[in-house]
Write a structure and sequence with these properties.
11% strand; alpha/beta; globular; two-stranded antiparallel sheet; 205 residues; 4-stranded parallel sheet
């Protein structure tokens, strides 16, 4: 996805020849136009190991307003944790099997491009297994459900639809979550991100 002049601008990623194992040659074809979003496979040439993850981290470091969605064949929670630790907005980690549901995939990509998050439910489950302690023990089962749906990147309306409750009920649950997790006062979007990171056991930088 690109912007500027109504045209499309591609992101060229070269990963060979850099010293210290750092991806080299991550650059724009047109430096004057920043891509809105980079869609990156976790495993890319030349080694098909973690080149895509390293490229995603370079992209976010050099162009922090460019959103990144990682695609993976399997759940690799370390990569998801690395990306979430480095950046708390405009990131997604989806399993490739989700791409088959085109509408859901497009919705997730748009959400990330708009600065939100999109995490595959299986990725969330694996990240939860990494936690050594449970900071959420004070939450009710319903509040945990709401927080899990927040982690997937769903809006209040989307959560209400999934749980078959009213928007006001969802808002009340979210306010309770913020209070119980003792999150610092901030704008609502930032507090949502902090709540999700706490849920996943990931510490923001």
């Amino acid at each position: 996805m690109g912007r500027g002049g109504g045209g499309r601008h591609r992101l060229r990623v070269g990963l060979g020849g850099a010293g210290g194992g750092t991806p080299a040659g991550v650059r724009l074809y047109d430096e004057q136009h920043r891509p809105v979003l980079a869609l990156v496979d976790v495993r890319m040439p030349p080694g098909f190991t973690d080149e895509g993850v390293r490229a995603a981290l370079v992209i976010r470091r050099q162009w922090p307003r460019t959103a990144v969605v990682l695609l993976s064949q399997y759940v690799e929670e370390r990569y998801a944790a690395d990306l979430l630790t480095a950046h708390t907005n405009g990131v997604g980690y989806l399993l490739k099997q989700r791409v088959a549901d085109v509408e859901e995939f497009i919705a997730a990509v748009r959400r990330v491009a708009d600065g939100g998050t999109a995490l595959d439910p299986e990725v969330i489950a694996q990240l939860l297994l990494r936690r050594h302690s449970d900071p959420l023990e004070g939450l009710t089962p319903r509040e945990r459900e709401v927080l899990a749906l927040m982690a997937e990147g769903r809006s209040n309306a989307g959560i209400a639809e999934a749980l078959v409750v009213s928007d006001s009920a969802v808002a009340k649950h979210i306010n309770n979550i913020f209070a119980k997790l003792d999150l610092p006062a901030a704008d609502a979007d930032h507090r949502r991100v902090l709540a999700v990171l706490r849920f996943l056991g990931v510490s923001p930088n």
